[in-house]
Design brief:
heterodimer; A: 261 residues; alpha/beta; nine-stranded mixed β-sheet; two-stranded antiparallel ribbon; 30% helix; B: Butyryl-Coa Dehydrogenase, subunit A, domain 1; Butyryl-CoA Dehydrogenase, subunit A, domain 2; Butyryl-CoA Dehydrogenase, subunit A, domain 3; 3 domains
Chain lengths: 261, 385
Amino acid sequence: MNIVVCLKQVPGITDVKIDPQTNTLVREGIKNIVNPFDTYALEEGVRVKERYGGRVTAISMGPAQAEEVLREAIATGADDAVLLSDSAFAGADTLATAYTLARAIDKLEQYDLIICGRQTIDGDTGQVGPELAEMLKLPFVAYVSKLDEISNGYMRVKRMVEDGYEVMETPLPAVLTVVKEINVPRLPSLRGLAKAKSAVIPVWTAQELGVDNNMVGLSGSATRVIEIFFPQRVGRGEIFQGELESQVSSLVDKLREATIV
Amino acid sequence: MEYFLSEQQKTIKHLARRIAEERILPVRAELDEKEEFPWAIIKDLADADMFRVFIPEEYEGLGGGCLDLCLVVEELSRVCSGVAISYAATALGCSSLLEYGTEEQKRKYLPDVASGRRLTAFALTEATAGSDVSAIRTTARREQGSYVLNGTKQFITNGGEAEIYTVIALTSPERGIRGASTFLVEKDTPGFTFGKKEKKMGLRASATRELIFRNCLIPEENIIGREGMGFIMAMRLLDRSRPGVGAQAVGLAQGALEATVDYARQRIQFGHPIISLQAVQLMLADMAIAVEAARLLVYSVARTIDSGAKDFTEEAAMAKVFASDTAMKVTTDAVQIFGGAGYMRDYPVEKMMRDAKITQIYEGSNEALRTVIAFELRKRKARRE
């Protein structure tokens, strides 16, 4: 089993600040981390490898410093890592990102399973996984919460749906996105950290991938971010005064007015 | 403070802290309350290669020294010394094998210890033999290519959970302590059973049990070193492991200090956080001074051992005594600053105070070790050094 895991480096905080002038994230002073959902993808990949043999290759598209997440991936069980980095990739939306990842996976040639996190915590779209499957023309299962077994080129998985779960079988190769219920990611090991420190991580550019420059980065993006803003919080609390009886009836009137009761 | 740690030591310390905070902190109160052996955390430690730290590279370890081990123990103890001692007891349990085992014995057992598949335990203490080690009664009778063990060991850390036991027993009872030898006994050997699991004041996540040997037959190749060497080997191994107890005490005290500073900044009395009261400030400063001094002594002794020093009985005793007395004082003062809240189980400092007490007692009581230090002082004076 050759497993590819896609990882993204994201800002490591939940209250991200946005520069109102440029509509981009303020990255100064923020520690970057592996997108938490991707850590479940990596752990599942490593577990599949431990169960069925093979190799885990971690790939990430991003600026040069995204190499950090790939080193962390090696420290926690990935065998190899590839960084996709080129100024031409900058400003990519999910479509251009999926296209770039797909070309890189094509270049890897041998793969049986591709695992992604369900979504990132910065973009939050959950689109890259399914787009990637579409571009690679592979079967796709989203929100996988359990990988039951793999045999004879088929894999049985459990996926979360709104009111329960579904059990599906899919031929391999396939693309999965996983949810946090699937496992508890391991911490790095000392030997893994030593390996990560000395690992040579190749950087593949647009030229090495042989991609069409109109399909990557901002020029390959089908969407544009026009504006990013915080929703206005309108506090409309109202304090009723007077006797308890009258307060209750005013409250009931208000609720009726709002057709809540 | 600059501790002049190597890159590898910094990595070890950092990862041990991460495991402690991410995996131990969320469950430490529950482990203490339920007196539950922390198997899930042992697995995390094993997966992170923490059991490889103290095993040489040729037996699938990372070849770290005494200081590397101390760093792990310190970081784990900062969060929960009950978990830390379950880990550290394995280092002690395989130390006789590391120092005195044959190549064959090392190959057979150490890789499993390195991977964390098998825990170990060290069994010296008996009901009649605490500080007076010479009073042990467990015997090992030689019989046609085997030894037959009889006797009961008491207060054995990792008892019942470990797979490999280092047991000190008398091969020549008539020679007293010079007739003691060291043996490897595997769990599930017929004639080897466990007595009651002790209910303890602190370190409640760790397992402490009796080991009972009734005509327990072990192969003669399970002896470590030569017959009659058991006592001297044990004393030398304990010299080597004492900085580890010191590190446990330093970690405990550090954890208590940090918790207390946090609390003193939040707790409002007389309209201000209590950290603005000079009485509290003086206590916190003394706690911090003591912790730092204890840490430096422990690190220095660990480095002395790692440098290949031959004799470090006195220094090892100093590190253990000073650090454990510090841990007791610092955790007691921590509870004092927390006030009534510190006496409750809602905050970690009451557990830390309970956990600290044993560090003054085990691996040589502080009184016994002070006499050891004094003995070395006299010896040096007599030699006019």
